[in-house]
Write a structure and sequence with these properties.
four-stranded antiparallel β-sheet, 11 strands, globular, seven-stranded mixed β-sheet, mainly beta
Length: about 120
């Protein structure tokens, strides 16, 4: 079982940056592929980024070059650095554990943190 708690969301102007954090419980954290998803109002939840503990990272095309996922296994933390934010990045962002390859889903989810990008 993994418990996830996100933080770091907020309101930012277009072009700005935010860093989301995710604190994870569980002694097997380092063995999980961790990731971030997001859900905008009226839209389905979509994959954003995935980090496999071996160092492989994958991103949605819409965030490549702007977002960076990272993790600190010693602290059981996952981060999402978001730069050059756009209004279309506005969504609730969810941290996830045991993310399927390709971002098709995950076994564990956080409660989400709101990110709002103003134009």
């Amino acid at each position: 079982q993994v418990h996830l708690v996100e933080s770091g969301g907020g309101l930012v102007q277009a072009g700005g940056s935010l860093r989301l954090s995710c604190a994870a419980s569980g002694r097997t954290f380092s063995s999980y592929a961790m990731g971030w998803f997001r859900q905008a109002p009226g839209k389905a939840r979509e994959f954003v980024a995935r980090d496999w503990s071996g160092g492989t990272r994958n991103y949605a095309d819409s965030v490549k070059g702007r977002f960076t996922i990272s993790r600190d296994n010693a602290k059981n933390m996952v981060y999402l650095q978001m730069n050059s934010l756009k209004p279309e990045d506005t969504a609730v962002y969810y941290c996830a554990a045991n993310v399927a390859y390709g971002g098709g889903g995950a076994d564990y989810w956080g409660q989400g943190t709101q990110v709002t990008v103003s134009s």
